Amino acid sequence: MVFHGGLGLASRMDQMTGFNSIADRDGFIVVYPQGIDRHWYDGRNVEGQNRFDDVDFVKNIIDHMERKYRADSQHIYACGISNGGFFAQYVALQLPTKIAAVASVAATLPALIASGRPSLKPMSVLYILGLNDPLVPFKGGPIHYKHFKDRGMLISASQAAVFWQTGNRGSKVPTSIDLPDTDPTDNCRVKVATFGGGLRGSEVVVYGIEGGGHTWPGSIPTLSKGMVGETCRDISASEVIWDFFKRH
């Protein structure tokens, strides 16, 4: 399942991610749900969005896909960008027996969620985050943009990794690598930190994009660079996410 960002549309997510082609190539089902009023309730309690039970909506989608399309109940995955990335993690916490692994692009973890209990089962989590994200601060703090009001407080990327790593009982010390700068023109570099050794093979992986913004790496930007920042070309977020899901 691929969740759009705030004010986004499910109908545009394949254009951003290219997941249809990957699904056709490797033989899996991809679903693009649409949130009411183009938002997801992700636990931040923003402007009454908790009026809608989006988690129950997702549960019904999963049940429908298993019943009608024989989707494998042991291999259901959730990912998203921004509001959709927060929501993917929220779904994994609310439906831990339904979700095998989760990936969040341009979204760390809301402080309200981080103050609660970690997942009831080991959960492998992938973050792909821009260090220069102008909306969702990599180091934590309030979600900010000139047109936004209060959109909640976030913890830092490192704290978010520790939240999931604690539930997994994995290594507290990550292994880190620098990926090749395959596109020197994108003003970005990618560093990867992996907290492995969790129960049932779980792990937390953080792709930190130096110079990267509030964007989906490898995609064609739909918003101006002045609004969301740089788009990394050194990796394809969609390929990284699918490779991660295949491991779990």
Describe, in plain words, how this protein is organized in 3D.
The protein is an alpha/beta fold. 29% of the residues lie in helices and 18% in strands. It is built from eight helices and ten strands. The protein has helices spanning 13-17, 19-26, 54-69, 83-94, 111-114, 157-168, 225-228, 237-247; strands at 2-3, 77-81, 101-105, 109-110, 124-130, 141-142, 153-155, 175-178, 189-195, 204-210. The strands form two sheets. The chain has a seven-stranded mixed β-sheet, with helices on both faces. A three-stranded antiparallel β-sheet has the order 4-7-6. Strand 9 (189-195) and strand 10 form a beta hairpin. The two termini are 15 Å apart. The mean pLDDT is 94.
How many helices?
8
Strand order of the largest sheet: 1-2-3-5-10-9-8
Largest sheet: 7 strands, mixed
The span between the termini is 15 Å
Strand content: 15-25%
Shape annotation: globular
The chain-level structural class is alpha/beta
What order do the helices and strands follow? Answer: EHHHEHEEHEEEHEEEHH
- Which residues form runs of ≥5 with pLDDT under 50? none
Task: State the total count of DSSP E strands.
Answer: 10
Average predicted local confidence, pLDDT: 94
Helix content: 25-40%
The radius of gyration over CA amounts to 17 Å
